[in-house]
Amino acid sequence: MLRRSKHALAFALIIASTVFAPMAEAGKAPNPMATVSLPNSSPLVTFRLLFNVGAASDPKGKEGLAALTASLLANGGSREMTYEQIVSAMYPMATGFNSQVDKEMTVFSGTTHVDNLPKYYQIISEMLLNPGWRADDFTRIREDALNYLKVSLRQANDEELGKEALYQFIYEAGHPYGHNNAGTIASLEKLTLDDVKQFYRDHYTQANVVVGLAGGYPKGFDEKVQRDFAARLPAGGAEKLGLPQPAKISGLEMQVIEKNTLGTAISFGFPLPVTRKDADWAALLVMQSYLGQHRSSSSYLYQRLREIRGLNYGDYAYIEYFPRGMFQFHPDPNLARQQQIFQVWIRPVEPKNGLFALRAGLYEVNKLMRDGMTEKDFEATRQFLSKFVNVLTKDQDAQLGYALDSRYYGIPSFTDYVRAQLAKLTLADVNRAIKKYLQADNLKIVVITKDAAGFKEAAVANKPSPISYTSPPPKEILEEDKLIESYKLNFNPSRVEIMPVEQVFQK
Amino acid sequence: MKKLFVAFLVLGLLMPLTASADNKIFPYKYFMDDLPNGLRLVTVPTDYPNIVALYIVVGTGSRNEIEPGKSGFAHLFEHLMFRGTEKTTPQQYNSALKRAGADSNAYTEDDRTVYHTVFSKEDFDQILSLEADRFQNLKVPVDLFKTETRAVLGEYNKNASSPTRKLYEVLRDTAFDAHTYKHTTMGYLRDVENMPNQYDYSLDFFKRYYRPEYTTIVVSGDIKHDNVLELVKKYWGNWQRGAYVPDIPTESVQKEERTAQVDWPQPTLPWIAVSYKAPAYSDEQKDKAALDLIGNLGFSPTSELYQRLVIKEQKVDVLAPDFEDHRDPYLVTIIARVKDAKDVAYVRSEIIKTIDSYKTQLVAKDKLDAVKSNLRYSFALSLDNSEAIAANLAPFIALRRTPETINKVYEIYSAITPEDLQAMAKKYFIPEHRTIVTLSQKEKPENATQK
Q1: Which end of chain A is more exposed for a tag (fewer CB within 10 A), N or C?
Q2: pTM, to two decimals
Q3: What is the pLDDT of residues A340-362, one digit of tens each?
Q4: Are the beta carbons of A155 and B105 separated by less than 8 Å?
Q5: Is residue A52 a contact partner of residue A105, using CB atoms and an 8 Å limit?
Q6: Which B positions 318-337 lie with beta carbon below 8 A of chain A?
Q7: End-to-end CA distance of chain A
Q8: Tens digit of each residue's pLDDT (9 = 90 or more) over A250-262
């Protein structure tokens, strides 16, 4: 549980990754110049300036454009000030301005002490509404994006690599979600400053923006921000993002990424036709929390794979996109999407136990589908979630972020909504949803390992994969191991590929 | 670099009802109680509703791993603390936390191990009693011990894809000879692999360090001091004091510059770390505080070098100072990621030139004031919920066992002059005390030019 989040260096990854993250619901015209305001008596003021546009709107061949645009706005100069001047002006205030781009949302965020609010707002409003578009800023930001893909993601973090590769594998090229938010190496190399300006003109509009503010700002300040944005952004029109259904999965499909690395990292999942606004979401939330609550030792998968068998550092399950999970305990808000996937994240295991670990994950999902949850586990998980929502929204930045997401999904305040949904939920609802949505036979798997050919061959040939222990667990576990080691894997051989790591995110 | 703080800006603003009356940097009124067994309790009531943060700080970390072959043990021990007691199985412990909707975890550093739990106030009694039970009655059977060592190996493996982990491992190993800061908190791989055979040592480790005199309980949030104290006495009052004091080896003075190169098997951008032997944390002397300020002046985003290398010349994409507070003398490090291998020598030389400039030139007062302002606001901005308050206190508690140390350090920061910076630069930035480590992709044999 070592958590060295303060390490100066996690930094290198974070720099690049926070730069990239999401937008408005299909078929629904966003309310022009919408605002979400959460005034309170804190001396801090938090901005979340959200645009309903993201990587799903990248034009074909220009993948990464939404992220590059946001990154250039947040990390480049305005017409009034160069980027050096902005950095120097923000430094004494100990503040910054960050961008996050996901498929359908782009959010710019920052917090300032109220002492500095006028000065801070002057700087960031110019950055967003009057960008400098300097060529040297563009060169630097594009190079950061390329290095994020080439070095940070491919080479320095196998866990995030596996999770991001899984999304790409599930959605495939052609689907608007089918490329990494940061783009591809090939597309980034071709993008120009003119592309960025065009994207900005097309999408940074009154129709797409939602002004989010929280904290102890003076009365009327939120209206001032709204007026400024209305005066300086073009009106724009409602953008409809129509999404096709993700490709159908038949059997087990696998991408084995070949990389010279110590452990074997595994992620698997499938598209989930349920989001926060849907009736079955709360049932799936309970399922996910029970099966694999992020970084929680009470999660079922964590207990079976890590605590009992010592296979790895942790094992979790998700029903919503949760990037950067190795650095943080709680998800970032403003990653709302029309389409989500179910995902299991098995943290790196020793290569000799790789196939066993994959089988163990599939076996447990299969078992959950067969047996469902018990009343006791259902009640305990429901109780956990009813309280845990307080922890998720413990500071004003999170409260504001969740409020913006609730607006996107068209649901009430997140904490009220979750508690109300949980309160009316029954065990039967959860077990019905488990049967309806979970999959152990038709899903996609991404594995990162050194001996990719060996892994592929053993998996496709269904070779038994006994686990080796330093200290054998109890007899009933050894008996279960027998079932797991020969758990039948129905791979679709035409859909199993080996990919050298250098090709991932290439084009 | 530890963040610093100012109070007057925050006083009466951040938390009007709990702000202490005098001009202290840490803006909250807090209570400090010592139990007869040596346990200390720090209570910080806040106005943030409902949530309570419980941080249990043990003043032991990888610094305490003094025997050869035992690196990584403090961290392994942190894991073992989740493996049950005579009274409570891990399953019971987990279910109780789950019922409370708690967010629970732990971390280990050089000088501390911190167990932290955040939950709703109505569950305080139960969680405090569970924590007291595992600190006093931990009982891990040998088979579970061995299984947990494999989870730690899994943690080493998941970290191993990060080049900076390796960079720091080699930096410490190169810079230190005797002191236990020579190894990282994670430990050497060989020691991690051998952990399954160290069960008996784990029992000794628990007896030595999981004792009230090493432990401080920090509680912040929607709580009342009297109630907290009463419960702490009830559940923790019978814990037996220990007697063990580790003999941490002293590092002798470094006599010449040291260098090391790490060949990374994968494509990577080159990394460079330039380190100097540097003073321990102090809330009385100016040394550490002055070097903190120089680190920010010279290498933060507002510095001349950052603006030149990162923004104008675009030869570097990461440049940062790193100087965590430590109980014993440690390292002040400047770290950079260079975009092109041919610029490594140039970047190294620019970093050293910048460092040396503080020995010869006085810093402009407005620049120094900007850094002081940054530190103040960083602190104010970081205290925006009950958990953040406890989390910010934990490292200081591990060093001095009192929030007052924050106030004292701030007073030092605000008193530091350009002349102080120059004096400390001359005292510490000595080439013979320098260690430089570079990391770059291993060259392919056909065009290899190095050893």
Answers
A1: C
A2: 0.89
A3: 999 999 999 999 999 999 999 99
A4: no
A5: yes
A6: 318, 320-322, 324, 333, 335, 337
A7: 36
A8: 999 999 999 999 8
